[in-house]
Amino acid sequence: MKAVVLLSGGMDSLVTTAIAHAEGFALAAIHINYGQRTWQKELESFRSICNHYNIEQRLEVNADFLAQIGGSSLTDYSMPVRGADFQNSSIPTSYVPFRNAGFLSMAVSWSEVIGAGKIFIGAVEEDSSGYPDCRKVFYDAFNTVIALGTKPETKIEILTPLIELQKSDIVRKGMQLEAPFSLSWSCYKSEGTACGVCDSCARRLRAFELVGQRDPIEYEERPHYI
Q1: Which stretches of 81-185 are assigned E, i.e. beta strand?
Q2: What distance in Å separates the CA atoms of residue 77 and residue 70, rounded to the nearest whole number?
Q3: Are 108 and 156 contacting, i.e. CB atoms less than 8 angstroms apart?
Q4: What single-letter DSSP state applies at residue 219?
Q5: How far apart are CA 199 and CA 185, in angstroms?
Q6: Phi then psi for 62, rounded to 5 degrees?
Q7: Distance between CA 54 and CA 66 in Å, rounded?
Q8: How far apart are CA 81 and CA 198, in angstroms?
Q9: Domains held by the chain: number
Q10: 202 inside domain
Q11: Which of 55, 76, 191, 201 would bridge 41 by S-S if both were Cys, CB 3.0 to 4.6 A apart?
Q12: pLDDT tens for residues 147-181?
């Protein structure tokens, strides 16, 4: 069966791709540039990961209207990118308003055209930054939307294999599958060397620490978070 993977180039989407590959799906990958600070590095990671898994069917989409809308520190340079705060339960400034709904809509459109029956996305609820569009209930509801909004013969399902995992479990899973972590990019702030202190870098570094491994990418700072 053919499956579309939403592949940002980050650690979670990398491991999701590794899972889909291990399950034997014929993969097609979609990457969406939405005006985020690190879009060039993320695109580079997307292409490198696709090459690693021999994914030839690719779609690179420009959705920079999200940057024009603003409201997120990932796209609005006047808003600072928040540092690590593992105790904060509020929605962080890095949340891009309703972003994943738009991404999924693009993936569903493409899937319907190319005949893909599954869409993989690396959403994480249990150990995420509190994004409302990373919750299981959201993806369950979106699967209903797909069923209602596509042709009667179309059967497309969103799969979220990481949704209930902790970040450290994601690292373990990736190691089991020999996922190339060195090709992925998680930093919200830098395209050169990862900052090590933004919320995304901190969660990634902590995950590797928890499993007793060193993250293979380079950091400007490499604080200890456990």
Answers
A1: 118-120, 157-159
A2: 9
A3: yes
A4: B
A5: 13
A6: -100, 115
A7: 30
A8: 7
A9: 1
A10: no
A11: 191
A12: 999 999 999 999 999 999 999 999 999 999 999 99
Residue 12 belongs to some domain of the structure: yes
Distances (CA, A) of 161 to 23, 41, 56, 131: 11, 25, 23, 17
Predicted structure pTM score: 0.96
Burial (CB count within 10 angstroms: exposed 0-12, middle 13-18, buried 19+), residue 130 = middle
Domain that holds residue 10: 2-179
How far is 176 from 86, CA to CA, in rounded Å? 26
- CATH number of the domain at 127, please: 3.40.50.620
Q: Is 43 exposed, middle or buried (0-12, 13-18, 19+ CB in 10 A)?
A: middle
Q: Which residue has the tokens 């090459």?
A: 51
How far are the Cα atoms of 122, 142, 179 from residue 65, in angstroms, in the given order?
23, 22, 32
In 3D, which of 85, 80, 74, 72 has the Cα closest to residue 202?
85
Tokens linked to 223: 């604080």
d(CA 45, CA 50): 8
User: pLDDT tens-digit profile of 89-128?
Assistant: 789 999 999 999 999 999 999 999 999 999 999 999 976 6
**What does the H/E/C string look like for 136-162?**
HHHHHHHHHHHHHHCCCCCCCEEECCC
